[in-house]
Each structure stands twice: as structure tokens, then as C-alpha cells.
Batch of 3 targets.
Target 1
Amino acid sequence: MGDGADMSASVERRIGDNIARQIYRDPDYTDDPVLMDYVRGIWLRLMQAARLRGELSQELEEAFAWEIVLDRDRSVNAFALPGGYMGVNLGLLAVVTSEDELASVMAHELSHVTQRHIARLTGQSSKQGPLLIAAMILGAMAASRNPQAATAMIAGGQAAAIQGQLNFSRDMEREADRVGYGVLTQADYAPEGFVTMFEKLQQANRFNDLGGFPYLRSHPMTTARIADMQARQQLLPPNTFSPSVTHAMLAMRAHVLSHIDTESRRTTVQAAANPQLSQSTLVRQAGVLYGAALAASAQRDFAVAERLLGQLQGLLRDVAPAARLLRLLGAELALAEGKPALVLERLPNGPLGQLSGKPLRPELFLWAQAVTQAGQTAPLSQAAQQLQTWVANWPRDAQAWQLLSAVYAAQGQGLSAVRADAEGRAAQLDFAAALNRLKAAQDMMRQGGKIDHIEASIIDTRAREFELRLREQSLQR
Ligand SMILES: [Zn+2]
């Protein structure tokens, strides 16, 4: 490949960090806890399978970020980025019809990462610094979204050349299919997911309306790939999986969160009033009612949202796997209505999962926000504890840091609140903003008053660390 050798995992990670830092600042970046919980759950399950199959070395696991970034973009796309970051568009979530299909795309992308395909592509440009390579990749991503704007971003006629350089080769695509298929089945997903997704993409290709399916541009359907897939399909029993109620609701959630204009929301709410809805499948009804409840809440039409929630609860009374999503929806509506007591009532286990007894991210976040709204002393210190444990396990969880900051503020612990806010910025690799917050905290300390000496020494240490990271970032070019 080219003249450059493959780049090291740590250089690739630095490129990935530079890209991620920009994505986190993009207004379309979203960290919806419910969708993130779903997508990350699939990702972790696939990673475990890749580990078992020896596709994921310990060295790579330690060097890379393995973070999911969700994007409100409506186009059907998922993309492996350098350094173990994986972008997933809400447009993809809205269009797949089962968890297995979603897992098949993610398994393919994961395999591009584990097979070090990205290192081979970017290795060709290894004479350029990580910042420049990151800028090129960001430019190519923007180009797949909006061809005209991106051409302006990248000087002259370079855009097409860069895009070409960043595309995976046909052999890489076939390898990612083969390895991805193995990982998917190892993870106990239905292998039909791979086939139905493939058919869906092929079909879409026929009606390709420029930009609707950028996935196909970066992963072209070659005859060889199609032949491989047909051979795999012949080994499968016919049609053994059916779409699930939970997936239908989550797909509608992705739709609602990526269609935020008033007109789209109104259409989504109206779909629930269609008299023919009761004739359609349970899966379809659940999706429509769930989406309508969310959209009504977003329009602050809470009476309608609550009525739809009640309808949904009636419809899914005997569908056990849907219970958790209904609990979360109920809590979410109550929070939006500004009724923290109702949130706590609708989350009988607080931040903990009903089955596991362990904190789950969406539950934890809703519960912590309700506790902060209610502002009572004992629950606040419990929330602080739960969130402290959470960020100790997931230090890159910016949203958890922000919630912890809000809890501290409600407790009147100003210094800790500012530090948690700074940690949230650092989690999204914005060390300049993180440092700014800590400097504000240091100013607060200088102005005297009651000082927590432990917190003060943590702030000084972290400020030095962030300064160092900031200097590293500026030396990369
Ligand atoms: Zn691919």
C-alpha cells in the first residue's frame, strides 16, 4: 500500500481524538441516553465477540477509544473513524427494522477498525501530521453530507482526490464483510440481519437520491460482495427473525430526534390519530404511539403526550421486553412537565435497572435530574454518590459530569460544581474550555470564603494536567 508504512495505533488514536473533538462541538452531535444505551449495548456485545474470536488484540483495545458518537444527521450512515471512534447517524437507526440489522452494519464497521484498514488508508498520508489528516477526514465527512459546502472547505480540486484516498478498497470491504459476519454470529445476532440489511442497501441504491444513502458511496456494493453475501445467505434457514417492538420504538425515537421542526412533529403526532392504525401490526402501532408521545412532549403538548403514554401502556401490557422503555418514557415526560415527584414515582428502582440492580445510564440520568429539580438534601447526596461512582467507571462520560456539576450546584458546593463542569469539557477533549473553568475555580478560591482543601488540591493538579494536554494538542501539527 502506497509508500508509507501502516501508522501506529497511538498516532491513529491522536487523529481520532482530533476528529472527535470537532464532532462533539457540532450542533448535530447528540448524546440521547436512551439511544446511546441501545447502540453502545450492541457495540460492547460485538466487541466482546471480536475479543473471543481473536480479532481484537489487547494492545489495540488499550490504545483506542472505543466510543460511539451519535449524529442527528438523517442520512443512512455509520462510519468507522480512526482511533476506535464509531459514528452512527440517527438516519440509520430510523431506517433499520431490527437490532440484528443495526448490529450487522456495526459489525462491518468494527471490522474495518480491528483489521486496521484505517491505518492502511491514513498510513499513505503519514508524512502529514495528525491534525491535517483529521482535517481531511472531517472535510470528507462534510462532503458526504453537503457536497457544495465541503468543496469550499477543502481548497481547489483536492476534495475528490482526498475522498478517493480515504475510501476503503474492494478487498477491505470484502474482508470487513467476512470478519464482520463472524463477529455478528459470535455475538448471537441473527445472521439474516446481514442479508436483509444488504438487500435494503442494494434496493436503496436503485433509487439513490444523492445523499440519501452515503453509506453506499463509502462502501460500494461490488459484484464480488454481492456474490459473497448470496453464498452466505444460502447457508441460512429461511426468515427466522421478526422485527421487535422495542426496536420499532427506538427507531421512531431516532426519527423524532432527527426531525425537530414543528411540521414534522405535528405529522408524527397526527399519525397516532389515524383510525386505520388499530388494524396494523403491534410492532407498527407501538412505534407510532411512542413516536407521537415523544413528539407531543417536544411540542409541550403534555396532555396529549400523557394520553398516548396511557394508550401505549395498554397496548403493551403483556409485552415484557417493552416495559423498560415505557418506564423511561413515563419518567421522561414527567421530567419535561417539571414534575420531579412523578419522575421518581415512575422510576420505582431509582437509578437502578429492574433486573440487574445496577445503575443504568438512562435511568440514572433521569433520576438525578428529578432529584436536582426537587432539591431535597438526602436524595441530592445520594445522587452525587451515584454519579461519582459512574464517572469513576466512565470518565469520558461528559453528560454524567454535567449532571454531577448540577447536583453539586444544588448542594451549594460551588467549587466542586465548577470542577465537574471542567471535567465534562475535558471528557470531550476541549482542554481549553476545561482549563478556563478551573481558572475560574482558582479565582473563587483566591476570593476566600470556605475552602475545601481536598477539592482545591485536585483543582490545581487537574489544571496542570489539562495545560499539558493543551500543549500536546498545539504541538501536533
Ligand atoms: Zn465498509
Note: The chain has three domains: 9-234, 243-337, 350-477.
Target 2
Amino acid sequence: MNIIVCVKLIPDPEAPPASFKIDTAANKVIPAAGVSLVISPFDEQAVEAALRLKDVNGGKVTVISLGMGLPRDVVKKPLAMGADELIILEDPAFEGGDSWSTAYALAMAIKKIGEFDVVLCGRQAGDWDAGQVGSGIAEFLGIPGITIAKKIEVNNGTAVVERVLSDGYEVIEAVLPALITVSNELGEPRFAALKGIMAAAKKQPVIWKPADIGVEPSKLGAAGRATKLVKLFQPVREGKCEIIEGENPAEAAEKLALRLREAKVI
Ligand SMILES: Cc1cc2nc3c(=O)[nH]c(=O)nc-3n(C[C@H](O)[C@H](O)[C@H](O)COP(=O)(O)OP(=O)(O)OC[C@H]3O[C@@H](n4cnc5c(N)ncnc54)[C@H](O)[C@@H]3O)c2cc1C
């Protein structure tokens, strides 16, 4: 069974909020000094889902990541967890994309891999939370797409997926090949064992450029965007607090009620 997992590296979500800064003129996030990149948490769960499928059905897990200068020790983590191969789409032409051009590049890379039964993504990237790339890939590949999975089984060429709902889950079947996005309800991703870490250190990622996936750079990254980011800003939150006092609780309550009536709240 051939399983492909799309993994995005994002700035560590545990970084202090004060480190988050925007260049409003350029509509860009300023990379914060000292904040390291990590695998987007839902994508680690997608890797775990892939490895569980491999544990039961056998086969090969290939990881694809799109990004420039991705730190190798971080992007190799899925290999240390048990994935077999890592492909990085690394070229300036891939940069500055939106959900459309990101999904297109990943879909073309998956086409180039050729043989695949299941493609897994996180339910959404932990930085921008668009939750669109997975469904976009399914559309470009012309295969069924199932979102927000908490359990995946494969039987006789069919994926059986428990899909998270707000008050429970539903069970969906789809003929393979299919794309499935994975949610945190899947459970904790496995730790990388020492043996896996040492094996991953020896493996080299395969680097693909636009020509390797047979795509014109004009369809990729910033040039291939279908959307335009008009304004990026940090909301200013203002809080106003008025203390109502009284000689005793009853007087304070009376004054509070009068104040609320004055403000037309009651
Ligand atoms: C308002 C806004 C402002 C933005 N500003 C910037 C900016 O200043 N600088 C900047 O670099 N980006 C910026 N982006 C991000 C860029 O547009 C996104 O990377 C792109 O739209 C993909 O969407 P997403 O990251 O939300 O992915 P989602 O659709 O949430 O991702 C779902 C899944 O798709 C897969 N996936 C997504 N991206 C990748 C990837 N690169 N490699 C492998 N798998 C992947 C993962 O499995 C992921 O879990 C911005 C996005 C928004 C919405």
C-alpha cells in the first residue's frame, strides 16, 4: 500500500504571542527571531495515521513538504517516526503561494510519484488554519476527499473513515485512491525511537524543482495564486472597566442596576 503524507512546517505555536509581528506595508508576517519551525501538529497526526495504516497493511509511507530552507532535523522527523521517504519541493518558485497554488504544487508532485492509494493531510495548517489544501489536492487529482478523520481503516480497496462531527462522528466509505485529512481526535502521534532517529539522520531527502514535477513556475507560488491578500493586520483589543462601589453589597448592587439601566443594558 502506498501512502503519501503532506507535512507543513510552521513557526512553533507555543511561541509567546508577543513574538508575532506583521509587516503591514508588505502584508507579511515577520519571521520572529528565536522561534523555531516545527511540524504542524495536525500533520504529525497525519503521519501517525499513515504509520498505523502501514502497521496493519504494510507498504510505503512517502512524506512531501513544500518550503524553502526547511531545517533538515525538523522536516526529517516523520522519517524518524517510521516513514520511508521524504520529498521536499524546494525552489523560490514555490514561495508566496496561497491555498490554490500550494495544493496544485503538491498534487502535481503526487502525480509524479504515480502509484498511491491514500493521501493524508492535516485537517488544517496550525499557522493559517485555512483547511483548504487537502480538499484542493483531492480536486486536482480527481479523487474522493474526506475531511477531519479520527480513524481510518482500509478494506479491499475501500477506505472506511470515522469523520469527526460537533457532537459525535459519522462513518464514510470511499473507493481508493482517496485523500483524507486527519484531526487531533486520532490520538497522540508516536515518539521517534533512537533507532528511527539514527536511520533518519542517514537518509537524504529528495529535492524536487518545478521542472521535476512538470509544472511551469508561472503556475506556482506567488505567481500561481488565485487569491490576493488585501490586508493583514493585528486587531487592537481595548478593554474598558468601570468599578461600581457601595457602602455595602446591597448599595453596590443598586448602583450597578442603575448604571446598567442608564447604559440601556437592562
Ligand atoms: C491571511 C493570510 C496571510 C498569509 N500570509 C502569509 C505570509 O505572510 N507568508 C507566508 O509564507 N504565508 C502566508 N500565508 C500562508 C499561505 O498562503 C499558506 O501557506 C497557503 O495558503 C496554504 O494554506 P494553509 O497553510 O492555511 O494550509 P491548510 O489548507 O490549512 O493546510 C491543510 C493541510 O495541507 C497540507 N499543507 C499545507 N501547506 C503545505 C506545505 N507547504 N507543504 C506540505 N503540506 C502542506 C498539510 O497537510 C496541512 O495540514 C498566509 C495565509 C493567509 C490566509
Note: The chain is about 25% helix and 25% strand.
Target 3
Amino acid sequence: MSVLELRGVSAGYGAAAVVRDLDLSVAAGEVVTLLGPNGAGKTTTLKTAVGLLPARSGEVTVLGRPVGRRVDRNARAGLVLVPDSRALFPGLTVRENLWLAARRGGPGWASALDRLPRLAPLVDRRVALLSGGEQQMLALAKALLAQPRVLLVDELSMGLSPVAVQELLPIVRSLADDLSVAVLLVEQHVDLALGIADRGLVLHHGRVVLEGAAADLLADREAVHRAYFGGTDAAHA
Ligand SMILES: Nc1ncnc2c1ncn2[C@@H]1O[C@H](COP(=O)(O)OP(=O)(O)OP(=O)(O)O)[C@@H](O)[C@H]1O
Ligand SMILES: [Mg+2]
């Protein structure tokens, strides 16, 4: 059963529609990766899914309930975005960032380190002094404290080396496998993203031009490449 569902969603800024008639669903324990060139509408899709941006038409639901505009309320319902900006406090330590993210009544801040043990020796370091990969681990740790049912991850790998991405993406996979989180992952590293995903979609100018099982897309990189340039393909349902 899908946890996150977008049906016929259009969204944008001002007069222009950026995302058009988008259908997308993510089941519990599933990782779906949203691919596409710069400006295709990937971040806009995530913002709409999390309630930061209203859908102009269509519907976004989590576990069958419509997603409203109250992002804090949506977060309490388990809908959590890891934005591409990372949204950390650079002047504070790792521990302080986790304190601030921990919810009253939720698991303690230190529980976030269970899945991200590389952060443990860094808890007293200021975030500004962390590497990009370590900062992304902290962003994931913060998201985990919100006990997500649906995790939307926007370019975890922004500015990171492929080695750092190879360390981070399996952690994302494990959240789906071990905690049954529904993950929607936006990535520029196509092969690495498809390598941990169950399914993939390619957006171009706000429309899905290709979608399929991750293994099928990995096996037909040529189709993925064409989709980046707007070409549709027989694999598109
Ligand atoms: N706040 C905004 N106001 C107006 N236009 C915007 C705004 N944010 C994004 N856009 C435009 O919407 C389009 C889609 O942007 P979006 O950020 O969703 O793309 P993206 O697929 O995430 O790209 P990237 O890979 O570069 O992050 C772009 O043309 C962008 O210029
Ligand atoms: Mg983006």
C-alpha cells in the first residue's frame, strides 16, 4: 500500500506551472528516486509533497489523508523533508543541533547516532567544521528524530564526492528496509541513486517522461539519458 501519493498534481510559482499532472506513489519500505535535469521540477515536487507549496490541482495524501499547509503538523504525521540546504545551525555543535531537533516525548537525541555512528565522535564539534558528508549525516540524523513515515530527500549528495555519496545512500536504503520508511529521493548521481532504489522516475519540464523499476532503468541507461533531454520512451507507462 502506498504511504505517499500524488495524484494529478500541478504546482508552481506565480503564473507558471512548474510541475504538471504528476502521479507518483511511494510504499512503506520503498525507495523511489526522482531524477531529471536542473530545473525539471524535482525540488518543487518535494516542496508540494511536504505542504510547503500548495498543489494547484490534484491531491497529495499520506496514508490516505490529504496533506495540508501546516508543515509542522505534517511533520508530526511523519512527513519529513531533508532539504538540499541541509537546514543545520552551523555555529552550534552536532549535539546541540540534535537537541533542537529531538521532539518532546520522542526518542532522545543520542538515538539518532545509532544509525549514523560516524557522528558519535563528532558530537561536540561545531557543524561549520564538519565535512559536507558529515553534515549530510547530521541532516539525516535530525530527520530520523522526527520519526518519519515518509522521508523526502533533496540532493543529499550536493557538493559531495562520489565516495561520500556511496556511504550515505546505503543509509537511506536501510531506513526503508529496517524502519519501513517510504523514501522519495532526489538525486543527480543517477547510477548511485538507481543502485539503491526500487523504482525511478525522470522528470523533464515538470512532467514524468520515463518511469520504471530501478533495475530496468539501470539496464537501459540510454533511455534514461534520452529522458534527460525530454525524450519519452516506450517504458513510460
Ligand atoms: N521560488 C521560486 N519562484 C519562482 N520560480 C521558481 C522558484 N523555485 C524554483 N523556481 C523555478 O521552477 C523551476 C523548477 O525548479 P526546481 O527547483 O523544482 O527544479 P529542480 O528539478 O529541483 O532543479 P535542480 O536540479 O537544479 O535542483 C525552475 O525553472 C526554477 O527556476
Ligand atoms: Mg532541486
Note: Helices lie at 42-50, 71-76, 94-101, 132-145, 162-179, 190-196, 214-219, 221-228.
